[in-house]
Amino acid sequence: MKHYDLIVIGSGPAGEKAAVKAAYHGKSVAVVEKESMLGGAGTNTGTLPSKTLKETALYYSGINESGLFGVDKELKRAADAEDFFFRKNEVQDWQELGIEKNFVLHNIDVYKGKGTVINPNRVQVVGVDDALLEADFILIATGSYPFQPEGIPFDGKFVHDSDTILSIKGIPKSMVIVGAGVIGCEYATIFAVMGTKVKLVNGHGDILTFLDPEIRDQLVDSMEHDNIEFVLNQRIEKVEILPEDHEFNVHAKLSDGDPIQADMFLYAAGRSGQSAGLGLAEVGVEIGSRGNIVVDKEYRSAVPSIFAVGDVIGFPALASTGMDQGRVAVSHMFGFGDQVQLTEHFPYGIYTIPEVSVYGLTEEEAKQQGYECVVGRARYVDMPRGKIMGVKRGMLKMVVDKKTERVLGVHIIGKIATELVHYGMALVDSKATIETVINRVYNMPTLHELYKYAAYNVLIEGHYLDAPTGH
């Protein structure tokens, strides 16, 4: 039995960053990974693969360049599944190699096999590497897996979840996506621009309700423009895989009794914490709903020596937050004191086509909190850089407190929205005013000019006495 300061079960974003931080501070660390590839869902089934597919879809569809240069780009042959997944596979391999090098660089031992917690300080590894390990602390970073509703014939060929969709053998002519959350909307836009006829089914009357309604409406309009059909306030019942001689592969009924069918079904109905079979409940760790491990603000479980971070603890279940949760947990374990809590607020990035990214208060939230707010808008198509790029859609919406002129929230839909939002984060967190935004000099032409012109629009919409007559 080998002793370590820390054993991390799971090598995804949260586990990797926790392990590296502990090792950087001189702690002995072991990482246990049951899959053949390192990186967890962030590398293999979630974050990076789906975002890479989005860029691939944009490339093969050519929608960003259509009509810009006089002659539209034409590919010599239609993209097949091998083409579609080529770049995804390249990025996965590159990322896994990077994680492996990071572990080697920090002298972290990696054990390939299934880890089971047999007491608060011991882990049994069974697999490629059989080992009995002991540590002062154990960190669970096993991530999540797609929730599969009962009675649905998931076969990994015609009926998929968000993991198996990454191994399809061909691009379907038609697809029904069940669930209009972030994952469902992202895949809907990816397949739609590749020419798949997509129907997006949702049990509620709207999608992505946490977004500013104006931004959400623009996203819906864009998705409908790309021929995505919304089937709202409906549930899927009785799914049946049809024999090969039928026109469609999958047939189902909606809750109102109407039929719905397609070549392929994708269920994007949420995810569950990967906590089963780890021996956690047996040693006293509390498991909550959908397999999520219950932790305190330091990410410590009911067992003092066992911590948990990332998707396995539930909301917000983002790679970005998981990485910092891992670092914070390690800081508390060993008393480093350098990173003791996750920031209260963080940006949301939705990698649909077009992208959406938001930070701070929506217009509605600001009013509910008692602000008399003013809204400024700037559109991509009005920016010189937007014209150069040929961007037809996109907007930055800035929510400002009329009394103090402080920026309360920034909401962006459009190309590289997930990149542009970080300046908005700095404005909100530093309690900057629109004067700060206007008085900055930005490279020209750039999309960052959206901020300046949204701020000018605030002056106009707010009827400020000293508002400039032109800009």
UniProtKB/TrEMBL annotation:
Binding site for NAD(+): G179, A180, G181, V182, I183, G184, C185, E186, G270
Matching Pfam families: Pyr_redox_2, Pyr_redox_dim
Alphabetical list of Gene3D superfamilies matching this protein: 3.30.390.30, FAD/NAD(P)-binding domain (3.50.50.60)
Domain Pyridine nucleotide-disulphide oxidoreductase dimerisation residue range list: 347-454
UniProt-annotated location(s): Cytoplasm
Binding site for FAD: K51, G115, T142, G143, S144, D311
Cofactor binding: number and manner: Binds 1 FAD per subunit.
Cellular component aspect of the GO annotation: cytosol
Record family assignment: Belongs to the class-I pyridine nucleotide-disulfide oxidoreductase family.
Entry protein name: Soluble pyridine nucleotide transhydrogenase
Organism: Cerasicoccus arenae
